[in-house]
Design the sequence.
Protein backbone atom coordinates (compact mmCIF):
# COMPACT_ATOMS: atom_id res chain seq x y z
CA UNK A 1 0.00 0.00 0.00
CA UNK A 2 1.30 3.44 -0.88
CA UNK A 3 -0.12 6.96 -0.75
CA UNK A 4 -1.67 6.77 -4.19
CA UNK A 5 -3.50 3.55 -3.48
CA UNK A 6 -4.60 4.88 -0.11
CA UNK A 7 -5.99 7.95 -1.85
CA UNK A 8 -7.83 5.84 -4.40
CA UNK A 9 -9.34 3.50 -1.80
CA UNK A 10 -10.39 6.38 0.44
CA UNK A 11 -12.59 7.91 -2.26
CA UNK A 12 -16.10 8.99 -1.44
CA UNK A 13 -18.13 11.64 -3.23
CA UNK A 14 -18.18 14.99 -1.44
CA UNK A 15 -21.36 17.05 -1.80
CA UNK A 16 -20.57 19.88 0.62
CA UNK A 17 -17.57 22.11 0.14
CA UNK A 18 -16.04 24.95 2.11
CA UNK A 19 -16.45 28.40 0.62
CA UNK A 20 -12.86 28.49 -0.59
CA UNK A 21 -11.93 28.61 -4.26
CA UNK A 22 -9.04 26.61 -5.70
CA UNK A 23 -6.05 28.78 -6.61
CA UNK A 24 -5.06 29.06 -10.26
CA UNK A 25 -1.95 26.95 -9.88
CA UNK A 26 -3.90 24.05 -8.41
CA UNK A 27 -6.45 24.25 -11.22
CA UNK A 28 -3.64 24.10 -13.77
CA UNK A 29 -2.00 21.13 -12.06
CA UNK A 30 -5.31 19.28 -12.11
CA UNK A 31 -5.83 19.99 -15.81
CA UNK A 32 -2.27 18.87 -16.53
CA UNK A 33 -3.06 15.61 -14.77
CA UNK A 34 -6.23 15.25 -16.85
CA UNK A 35 -4.19 15.72 -20.03
CA UNK A 36 -1.66 13.10 -18.96
CA UNK A 37 -4.23 10.31 -19.19
CA UNK A 38 -4.12 7.74 -21.97
CA UNK A 39 -5.96 8.76 -25.13
CA UNK A 40 -7.13 6.48 -27.92
CA UNK A 41 -4.75 6.62 -30.91
CA UNK A 42 -3.40 9.98 -29.69
CA UNK A 43 -6.73 11.58 -30.66
CA UNK A 44 -7.23 13.59 -27.45
CA UNK A 45 -11.01 13.80 -27.75
CA UNK A 46 -11.61 15.65 -24.49
CA UNK A 47 -12.16 19.34 -23.80
CA UNK A 48 -12.57 20.69 -20.28
CA UNK A 49 -14.54 23.83 -19.61
CA UNK A 50 -13.74 25.42 -16.26
CA UNK A 51 -16.81 27.31 -15.09
CA UNK A 52 -15.81 30.24 -12.89
CA UNK A 53 -18.65 32.63 -13.66
CA UNK A 54 -21.01 32.60 -10.69
CA UNK A 55 -24.15 33.06 -12.74
CA UNK A 56 -23.25 30.21 -15.06
CA UNK A 57 -22.49 27.94 -12.12
CA UNK A 58 -25.91 28.69 -10.66
CA UNK A 59 -27.53 27.93 -13.99
CA UNK A 60 -25.68 24.62 -14.19
CA UNK A 61 -26.75 23.75 -10.64
CA UNK A 62 -30.34 24.35 -11.70
CA UNK A 63 -29.97 22.33 -14.93
CA UNK A 64 -28.52 19.44 -12.91
CA UNK A 65 -31.71 19.25 -10.86
CA UNK A 66 -30.93 21.86 -8.22
CA UNK A 67 -27.73 20.35 -6.90
CA UNK A 68 -26.35 23.24 -4.87
CA UNK A 69 -22.79 21.88 -4.83
CA UNK A 70 -22.59 22.45 -8.59
CA UNK A 71 -22.54 26.16 -7.74
CA UNK A 72 -20.95 26.00 -4.29
CA UNK A 73 -17.52 24.45 -4.54
CA UNK A 74 -13.86 25.29 -5.05
CA UNK A 75 -13.98 24.82 -8.81
CA UNK A 76 -16.30 23.32 -11.39
CA UNK A 77 -15.14 21.45 -14.47
CA UNK A 78 -17.31 20.30 -17.36
CA UNK A 79 -15.89 17.39 -19.34
CA UNK A 80 -16.84 17.25 -23.01
CA UNK A 81 -16.31 14.77 -25.80
CA UNK A 82 -14.88 17.05 -28.48
CA UNK A 83 -14.53 16.24 -32.18
CA UNK A 84 -14.91 19.88 -33.21
CA UNK A 85 -11.14 20.25 -32.96
CA UNK A 86 -10.67 17.34 -35.36
CA UNK A 87 -13.25 18.81 -37.72
CA UNK A 88 -11.37 22.12 -37.78
CA UNK A 89 -8.11 20.24 -38.36
CA UNK A 90 -9.74 18.29 -41.20
CA UNK A 91 -11.01 21.51 -42.79
CA UNK A 92 -7.47 22.90 -42.64
CA UNK A 93 -6.31 19.83 -44.58
CA UNK A 94 -9.46 19.54 -46.76
CA UNK A 95 -10.01 15.99 -45.60
CA UNK A 96 -13.48 14.58 -44.99
CA UNK A 97 -13.71 12.87 -41.61
CA UNK A 98 -17.45 13.13 -40.96
CA UNK A 99 -18.09 9.39 -41.17
CA UNK A 100 -15.46 8.77 -38.54
CA UNK A 101 -16.84 11.44 -36.22
CA UNK A 102 -20.41 10.19 -36.57
CA UNK A 103 -19.53 6.57 -35.82
CA UNK A 104 -20.50 4.57 -32.75
CA UNK A 105 -16.81 3.70 -32.42
CA UNK A 106 -15.90 7.40 -32.16
CA UNK A 107 -18.64 7.85 -29.57
CA UNK A 108 -17.03 5.15 -27.43
CA UNK A 109 -13.56 6.65 -27.95
CA UNK A 110 -14.70 10.14 -26.98
CA UNK A 111 -16.56 8.98 -23.90
CA UNK A 112 -13.61 6.89 -22.73
CA UNK A 113 -11.08 9.68 -23.40
CA UNK A 114 -13.10 12.19 -21.37
CA UNK A 115 -13.65 9.77 -18.51
CA UNK A 116 -9.97 8.81 -18.24
CA UNK A 117 -9.01 12.48 -18.13
CA UNK A 118 -11.64 13.21 -15.50
CA UNK A 119 -10.54 10.36 -13.28
CA UNK A 120 -6.94 11.54 -13.42
CA UNK A 121 -8.10 14.99 -12.37
CA UNK A 122 -10.22 13.53 -9.59
CA UNK A 123 -7.48 11.40 -8.10
CA UNK A 124 -5.00 14.25 -8.32
CA UNK A 125 -7.48 16.49 -6.48
CA UNK A 126 -8.06 13.89 -3.79
CA UNK A 127 -4.32 13.42 -3.36
CA UNK A 128 -4.19 17.12 -2.45
CA UNK A 129 -6.83 16.68 0.24
CA UNK A 130 -9.61 18.03 -1.95
CA UNK A 131 -12.96 16.32 -2.40
CA UNK A 132 -14.76 15.66 -5.66
CA UNK A 133 -18.14 14.62 -6.99
CA UNK A 134 -19.12 13.68 -10.53
CA UNK A 135 -22.19 15.49 -11.82
CA UNK A 136 -23.99 13.24 -14.27
CA UNK A 137 -27.00 15.45 -13.58
CA UNK A 138 -25.78 17.83 -16.29
CA UNK A 139 -27.23 15.25 -18.67
CA UNK A 140 -30.70 16.16 -17.43
CA UNK A 141 -30.55 19.24 -19.66
CA UNK A 142 -27.78 18.93 -22.19
CA UNK A 143 -29.29 21.34 -24.69
CA UNK A 144 -29.33 24.06 -22.02
CA UNK A 145 -25.82 23.18 -20.80
CA UNK A 146 -24.53 23.16 -24.35
CA UNK A 147 -26.13 26.53 -25.12
CA UNK A 148 -24.85 28.10 -21.90
CA UNK A 149 -21.27 27.05 -22.67
CA UNK A 150 -21.53 27.74 -26.44
CA UNK A 151 -20.66 24.19 -27.41
CA UNK A 152 -20.68 23.81 -31.20
CA UNK A 153 -21.52 20.71 -33.24
CA UNK A 154 -19.45 17.62 -32.35
CA UNK A 155 -18.98 18.80 -28.77
CA UNK A 156 -20.95 16.90 -26.15
CA UNK A 157 -20.79 17.82 -22.45
CA UNK A 158 -20.75 14.43 -20.69
CA UNK A 159 -20.58 15.27 -16.99
CA UNK A 160 -19.19 17.76 -14.52
CA UNK A 161 -16.70 17.35 -11.70
CA UNK A 162 -17.10 19.63 -8.69
CA UNK A 163 -13.90 20.01 -6.66
CA UNK A 164 -13.29 21.72 -3.36
CA UNK A 165 -12.25 21.59 0.26
CA UNK A 166 -14.53 19.00 1.89
CA UNK A 167 -17.03 20.20 4.45
CA UNK A 168 -18.58 16.80 5.13
CA UNK A 169 -17.43 13.29 5.94
CA UNK A 170 -19.87 11.01 4.18
CA UNK A 171 -19.83 7.24 4.64
CA UNK A 172 -18.75 4.82 2.02
CA UNK A 173 -21.46 2.61 0.57
CA UNK A 174 -20.38 -1.01 0.13
CA UNK A 175 -19.50 -1.93 -3.45
CA UNK A 176 -20.54 -5.15 -5.11
CA UNK A 177 -18.50 -8.12 -3.82
CA UNK A 178 -15.31 -8.44 -5.83
CA UNK A 179 -16.37 -11.89 -7.08
CA UNK A 180 -19.42 -10.25 -8.64
CA UNK A 181 -17.43 -7.85 -10.82
CA UNK A 182 -14.08 -9.58 -11.33
CA UNK A 183 -14.12 -12.81 -13.30
CA UNK A 184 -11.31 -15.04 -14.51
CA UNK A 185 -10.98 -16.03 -18.17
CA UNK A 186 -14.70 -15.95 -18.85
CA UNK A 187 -18.02 -14.46 -17.82
CA UNK A 188 -19.79 -16.02 -14.82
CA UNK A 189 -22.94 -18.10 -14.92
CA UNK A 190 -26.35 -16.63 -14.14
CA UNK A 191 -26.67 -18.80 -11.03
CA UNK A 192 -23.44 -17.53 -9.50
CA UNK A 193 -24.47 -13.95 -10.22
CA UNK A 194 -27.86 -14.49 -8.59
CA UNK A 195 -26.23 -15.87 -5.45
CA UNK A 196 -23.84 -12.94 -5.27
CA UNK A 197 -26.67 -10.46 -5.81
CA UNK A 198 -28.69 -12.04 -3.00
CA UNK A 199 -25.68 -11.77 -0.71
CA UNK A 200 -25.14 -8.13 -1.73
CA UNK A 201 -28.83 -7.28 -1.30
CA UNK A 202 -28.54 -8.41 2.30
CA UNK A 203 -25.25 -6.61 2.92
CA UNK A 204 -26.54 -3.30 1.56
CA UNK A 205 -29.90 -3.68 3.31
CA UNK A 206 -28.03 -4.01 6.60
CA UNK A 207 -25.90 -0.98 5.73
CA UNK A 208 -28.95 1.18 5.01
CA UNK A 209 -30.84 -0.15 8.00
CA UNK A 210 -27.99 0.78 10.33
CA UNK A 211 -27.65 4.24 8.78
CA UNK A 212 -31.37 5.02 8.98
CA UNK A 213 -32.13 3.42 12.33
CA UNK A 214 -34.13 0.68 10.63
CA UNK A 215 -36.26 3.01 8.48
CA UNK A 216 -34.79 1.77 5.25
CA UNK A 217 -34.46 -1.95 4.84
CA UNK A 218 -34.03 -2.49 1.14
CA UNK A 219 -30.73 -3.23 -0.50
CA UNK A 220 -29.03 -2.60 -3.81
CA UNK A 221 -31.03 -5.05 -5.91
CA UNK A 222 -34.30 -3.49 -4.84
CA UNK A 223 -33.03 0.08 -5.09
CA UNK A 224 -31.33 -0.21 -8.47
CA UNK A 225 -34.05 -2.17 -10.23
CA UNK A 226 -36.69 0.29 -8.99
CA UNK A 227 -34.62 3.25 -10.20
CA UNK A 228 -34.16 1.61 -13.61
CA UNK A 229 -37.83 0.77 -14.10
CA UNK A 230 -38.45 3.96 -16.05
CA UNK A 231 -35.82 5.08 -18.55
CA UNK A 232 -34.11 8.41 -17.85
CA UNK A 233 -33.02 11.13 -20.23
CA UNK A 234 -34.88 9.58 -23.14
CA UNK A 235 -34.11 12.65 -25.28
CA UNK A 236 -30.43 11.61 -25.29
CA UNK A 237 -30.37 9.66 -28.55
CA UNK A 238 -31.84 12.55 -30.55
CA UNK A 239 -29.73 15.16 -28.79
CA UNK A 240 -26.48 13.27 -29.30
CA UNK A 241 -27.32 12.74 -32.96
CA UNK A 242 -28.18 16.42 -33.34
CA UNK A 243 -24.58 17.05 -32.31
CA UNK A 244 -23.47 14.86 -35.21
CA UNK A 245 -22.40 11.98 -32.95
CA UNK A 246 -23.29 8.28 -32.49
CA UNK A 247 -25.21 8.12 -35.77
CA UNK A 248 -23.39 5.52 -37.86
CA UNK B 1 3.47 18.13 -6.15
CA UNK B 2 3.09 14.81 -4.37
CA UNK B 3 3.73 11.17 -5.26
CA UNK B 4 0.31 10.64 -6.75
CA UNK B 5 0.56 13.64 -9.04
CA UNK B 6 4.10 12.65 -9.99
CA UNK B 7 2.82 9.20 -10.91
CA UNK B 8 0.00 10.65 -12.99
CA UNK B 9 2.23 13.08 -14.85
CA UNK B 10 4.87 10.43 -15.52
CA UNK B 11 2.42 8.22 -17.43
CA UNK B 12 3.41 6.77 -20.75
CA UNK B 13 2.04 3.65 -22.36
CA UNK B 14 4.29 0.62 -21.97
CA UNK B 15 4.23 -1.89 -24.80
CA UNK B 16 7.03 -4.20 -23.66
CA UNK B 17 6.88 -6.03 -20.37
CA UNK B 18 9.23 -8.33 -18.50
CA UNK B 19 8.26 -11.98 -18.37
CA UNK B 20 7.06 -11.72 -14.79
CA UNK B 21 3.44 -12.24 -13.78
CA UNK B 22 1.73 -10.05 -11.19
CA UNK B 23 1.10 -11.89 -7.93
CA UNK B 24 -2.47 -12.52 -6.84
CA UNK B 25 -2.39 -9.97 -4.06
CA UNK B 26 -1.35 -7.20 -6.44
CA UNK B 27 -4.09 -8.16 -8.87
CA UNK B 28 -6.66 -7.98 -6.05
CA UNK B 29 -5.39 -4.60 -4.90
CA UNK B 30 -5.70 -3.27 -8.44
CA UNK B 31 -9.27 -4.56 -8.79
CA UNK B 32 -10.16 -3.06 -5.40
CA UNK B 33 -8.88 0.26 -6.69
CA UNK B 34 -10.98 -0.12 -9.84
CA UNK B 35 -14.05 -0.75 -7.70
CA UNK B 36 -13.39 2.34 -5.58
CA UNK B 37 -14.01 4.69 -8.53
CA UNK B 38 -17.13 6.81 -8.75
CA UNK B 39 -20.11 5.11 -10.36
CA UNK B 40 -23.19 6.77 -11.79
CA UNK B 41 -26.12 6.51 -9.36
CA UNK B 42 -24.46 3.58 -7.58
CA UNK B 43 -25.16 1.42 -10.63
CA UNK B 44 -21.70 -0.15 -10.90
CA UNK B 45 -21.95 -0.94 -14.59
CA UNK B 46 -18.45 -2.37 -14.98
CA UNK B 47 -17.23 -5.95 -15.02
CA UNK B 48 -13.56 -6.84 -15.29
CA UNK B 49 -12.43 -10.10 -16.81
CA UNK B 50 -8.90 -11.06 -15.86
CA UNK B 51 -7.46 -13.20 -18.62
CA UNK B 52 -4.86 -15.61 -17.25
CA UNK B 53 -5.27 -18.45 -19.71
CA UNK B 54 -2.31 -18.35 -22.08
CA UNK B 55 -4.27 -19.55 -25.09
CA UNK B 56 -6.98 -16.95 -24.56
CA UNK B 57 -4.39 -14.21 -24.20
CA UNK B 58 -2.83 -15.22 -27.50
CA UNK B 59 -6.22 -15.19 -29.16
CA UNK B 60 -6.91 -11.71 -27.80
CA UNK B 61 -3.52 -10.50 -29.04
CA UNK B 62 -4.48 -11.75 -32.49
CA UNK B 63 -7.96 -10.18 -32.35
CA UNK B 64 -6.39 -6.86 -31.35
CA UNK B 65 -4.38 -6.84 -34.57
CA UNK B 66 -1.40 -8.91 -33.48
CA UNK B 67 -0.31 -6.78 -30.56
CA UNK B 68 2.12 -9.13 -28.80
CA UNK B 69 1.92 -7.27 -25.47
CA UNK B 70 -1.71 -8.35 -25.13
CA UNK B 71 -0.33 -11.84 -24.57
CA UNK B 72 3.07 -10.97 -23.08
CA UNK B 73 2.58 -8.98 -19.89
CA UNK B 74 2.20 -9.36 -16.16
CA UNK B 75 -1.61 -9.46 -16.28
CA UNK B 76 -4.36 -8.70 -18.75
CA UNK B 77 -7.70 -7.12 -17.80
CA UNK B 78 -10.71 -6.73 -20.08
CA UNK B 79 -13.09 -3.95 -19.05
CA UNK B 80 -16.74 -4.48 -19.95
CA UNK B 81 -19.85 -2.38 -19.75
CA UNK B 82 -22.19 -4.78 -17.95
CA UNK B 83 -25.98 -4.48 -17.66
CA UNK B 84 -26.46 -8.24 -17.50
CA UNK B 85 -26.18 -8.03 -13.73
CA UNK B 86 -28.97 -5.45 -13.64
CA UNK B 87 -31.09 -7.61 -15.94
CA UNK B 88 -30.67 -10.59 -13.59
CA UNK B 89 -31.53 -8.34 -10.64
CA UNK B 90 -34.61 -7.08 -12.47
CA UNK B 91 -35.72 -10.64 -13.25
CA UNK B 92 -35.39 -11.47 -9.55
CA UNK B 93 -37.75 -8.57 -8.82
CA UNK B 94 -39.94 -9.06 -11.92
CA UNK B 95 -39.29 -5.49 -12.99
CA UNK B 96 -38.89 -4.53 -16.64
CA UNK B 97 -35.78 -2.39 -17.17
CA UNK B 98 -35.09 -3.10 -20.85
CA UNK B 99 -35.83 0.44 -22.01
CA UNK B 100 -33.31 1.80 -19.54
CA UNK B 101 -30.63 -0.68 -20.57
CA UNK B 102 -31.15 -0.02 -24.27
CA UNK B 103 -30.94 3.76 -23.94
CA UNK B 104 -28.17 6.01 -25.22
CA UNK B 105 -28.01 7.44 -21.71
CA UNK B 106 -27.21 3.99 -20.28
CA UNK B 107 -24.58 3.52 -22.96
CA UNK B 108 -22.86 6.70 -21.79
CA UNK B 109 -23.15 5.66 -18.13
CA UNK B 110 -21.70 2.22 -18.80
CA UNK B 111 -18.80 3.53 -20.85
CA UNK B 112 -17.96 6.16 -18.24
CA UNK B 113 -18.23 3.71 -15.33
CA UNK B 114 -15.86 1.24 -17.00
CA UNK B 115 -13.38 3.95 -17.94
CA UNK B 116 -13.25 5.45 -14.44
CA UNK B 117 -12.62 2.01 -12.96
CA UNK B 118 -9.91 1.29 -15.52
CA UNK B 119 -8.13 4.55 -14.87
CA UNK B 120 -8.11 3.89 -11.14
CA UNK B 121 -6.57 0.50 -11.80
CA UNK B 122 -4.03 2.02 -14.16
CA UNK B 123 -2.85 4.71 -11.77
CA UNK B 124 -2.68 2.24 -8.90
CA UNK B 125 -0.54 -0.03 -11.08
CA UNK B 126 1.76 2.82 -12.07
CA UNK B 127 2.11 3.87 -8.43
CA UNK B 128 3.54 0.38 -7.80
CA UNK B 129 6.14 0.82 -10.51
CA UNK B 130 4.19 -1.21 -13.04
CA UNK B 131 3.51 -0.07 -16.58
CA UNK B 132 0.19 -0.15 -18.43
CA UNK B 133 -1.26 0.19 -21.89
CA UNK B 134 -4.90 0.46 -22.93
CA UNK B 135 -5.89 -1.94 -25.70
CA UNK B 136 -8.65 -0.33 -27.76
CA UNK B 137 -7.63 -2.81 -30.45
CA UNK B 138 -9.96 -5.37 -28.83
CA UNK B 139 -12.70 -3.39 -30.59
CA UNK B 140 -11.32 -4.62 -33.91
CA UNK B 141 -13.07 -7.95 -33.31
CA UNK B 142 -15.64 -7.60 -30.55
CA UNK B 143 -17.76 -10.53 -31.67
CA UNK B 144 -14.73 -12.80 -31.35
CA UNK B 145 -13.66 -11.26 -28.03
CA UNK B 146 -17.18 -11.57 -26.69
CA UNK B 147 -17.45 -15.21 -27.79
CA UNK B 148 -14.05 -16.09 -26.35
CA UNK B 149 -14.98 -14.66 -22.95
CA UNK B 150 -18.59 -15.92 -23.03
CA UNK B 151 -20.08 -12.47 -22.66
CA UNK B 152 -23.88 -12.63 -22.69
CA UNK B 153 -26.35 -10.01 -23.92
CA UNK B 154 -25.93 -6.57 -22.32
CA UNK B 155 -22.21 -7.12 -21.75
CA UNK B 156 -19.88 -5.17 -24.03
CA UNK B 157 -16.09 -5.54 -23.79
CA UNK B 158 -14.82 -1.97 -24.27
CA UNK B 159 -11.04 -2.22 -24.04
CA UNK B 160 -8.25 -4.11 -22.35
CA UNK B 161 -5.54 -2.94 -19.99
CA UNK B 162 -2.23 -4.80 -20.10
CA UNK B 163 -0.18 -4.43 -16.93
CA UNK B 164 3.33 -5.54 -16.13
CA UNK B 165 6.89 -4.77 -15.19
CA UNK B 166 8.15 -2.32 -17.84
CA UNK B 167 10.87 -3.48 -20.18
CA UNK B 168 11.04 -0.26 -22.21
CA UNK B 169 11.33 3.44 -21.60
CA UNK B 170 9.28 5.06 -24.31
CA UNK B 171 9.19 8.82 -24.82
CA UNK B 172 6.24 10.99 -24.05
CA UNK B 173 4.51 12.57 -27.01
CA UNK B 174 3.55 16.20 -26.46
CA UNK B 175 -0.12 16.70 -25.65
CA UNK B 176 -2.24 19.49 -27.13
CA UNK B 177 -1.39 22.85 -25.55
CA UNK B 178 -3.43 23.34 -22.40
CA UNK B 179 -5.16 26.39 -23.93
CA UNK B 180 -6.45 24.13 -26.69
CA UNK B 181 -8.27 21.76 -24.33
CA UNK B 182 -9.05 23.86 -21.26
CA UNK B 183 -11.46 26.74 -21.73
CA UNK B 184 -13.00 29.13 -19.25
CA UNK B 185 -16.76 29.62 -19.01
CA UNK B 186 -17.41 28.93 -22.66
CA UNK B 187 -16.16 27.15 -25.74
CA UNK B 188 -13.41 28.84 -27.76
CA UNK B 189 -13.78 30.41 -31.19
CA UNK B 190 -12.79 28.59 -34.37
CA UNK B 191 -10.02 31.10 -35.04
CA UNK B 192 -8.34 30.55 -31.68
CA UNK B 193 -8.54 26.81 -32.19
CA UNK B 194 -6.98 27.07 -35.65
CA UNK B 195 -4.07 29.11 -34.28
CA UNK B 196 -3.49 26.60 -31.50
CA UNK B 197 -3.66 23.69 -33.93
CA UNK B 198 -1.09 25.33 -36.21
CA UNK B 199 1.19 25.83 -33.24
CA UNK B 200 0.70 22.21 -32.16
CA UNK B 201 1.28 20.91 -35.69
CA UNK B 202 4.69 22.57 -35.63
CA UNK B 203 5.55 21.35 -32.14
CA UNK B 204 4.66 17.75 -32.90
CA UNK B 205 6.36 17.89 -36.32
CA UNK B 206 9.57 18.94 -34.56
CA UNK B 207 9.12 16.16 -32.01
CA UNK B 208 8.73 13.50 -34.70
CA UNK B 209 11.50 14.94 -36.83
CA UNK B 210 13.94 14.78 -33.92
CA UNK B 211 12.88 11.24 -33.04
CA UNK B 212 13.21 9.95 -36.62
CA UNK B 213 16.30 11.85 -37.69
CA UNK B 214 14.25 14.03 -40.00
CA UNK B 215 12.45 11.14 -41.74
CA UNK B 216 9.07 12.10 -40.41
CA UNK B 217 8.15 15.75 -40.62
CA UNK B 218 4.39 15.79 -40.20
CA UNK B 219 2.65 16.79 -37.00
CA UNK B 220 -0.56 15.94 -35.17
CA UNK B 221 -2.97 17.75 -37.46
CA UNK B 222 -1.66 15.90 -40.51
CA UNK B 223 -1.41 12.56 -38.74
CA UNK B 224 -4.80 12.60 -37.05
CA UNK B 225 -6.83 13.87 -39.98
CA UNK B 226 -5.23 11.27 -42.25
CA UNK B 227 -5.99 8.51 -39.76
CA UNK B 228 -9.61 9.68 -39.49
CA UNK B 229 -10.21 9.90 -43.25
CA UNK B 230 -11.68 6.41 -43.35
CA UNK B 231 -14.00 5.34 -40.55
CA UNK B 232 -12.84 2.42 -38.41
CA UNK B 233 -14.80 -0.44 -36.90
CA UNK B 234 -17.90 0.40 -38.89
CA UNK B 235 -19.58 -2.80 -37.65
CA UNK B 236 -19.75 -1.24 -34.18
CA UNK B 237 -23.27 0.20 -34.34
CA UNK B 238 -24.82 -3.12 -35.35
CA UNK B 239 -22.71 -5.11 -32.92
CA UNK B 240 -23.50 -2.86 -29.97
CA UNK B 241 -27.19 -2.99 -30.82
CA UNK B 242 -27.03 -6.77 -31.14
CA UNK B 243 -25.93 -6.72 -27.49
CA UNK B 244 -29.13 -4.83 -26.66
CA UNK B 245 -27.31 -1.53 -26.05
CA UNK B 246 -27.38 2.03 -27.46
CA UNK B 247 -30.63 1.42 -29.32
CA UNK B 248 -33.09 3.94 -27.86
Sequence:
Amino acid sequence: MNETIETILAHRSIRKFKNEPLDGETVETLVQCAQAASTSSYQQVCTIIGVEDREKKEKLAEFAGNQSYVADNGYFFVFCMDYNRHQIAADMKTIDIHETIQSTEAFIVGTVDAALAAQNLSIAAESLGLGIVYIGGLRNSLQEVSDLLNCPEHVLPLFGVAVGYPDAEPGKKPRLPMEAVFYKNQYKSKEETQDLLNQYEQETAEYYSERTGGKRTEGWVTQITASMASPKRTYMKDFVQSKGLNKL
Summary: Chain A touches chain B through 117 residues (CB under 8 Å).
